[in-house]
Amino acid sequence: MQEVIAKMSGASKSFDKLKVLDQITIELKSGTILGLIGPSGAGKSTAIKCLI
Which end of the chain is more exposed for a tag (fewer CB within 10 A), N or C? Predict the structure, then answer.
């Protein structure tokens, strides 16, 4: 069984009144490789910043 090394559950993020992330859940286990893809402005970098 792999150990959970990072977890974010039900996270949301807003800038002023603009909600950019809504109920994001991520669980990373040791040895896992994750790719986060999407169009420009989708919130990929913001999600990673919230996780770390």
Answer: N
Rg (CA), the chain: 12
Structural domain of residue 9, as residue ranges? 4-51
Task: Indicate the residue type of 31.
Answer: G
Per the structure, the count of domains in the chain is 1
The pTM score is: 0.75
Q: Is 15 left (phi over 0), alpha (psi -120 to 50) or beta?
A: beta
pLDDT tens for 1-52 read: 789 999 999 999 999 999 999 999 999 999 999 899 999 988 999 999 998 8
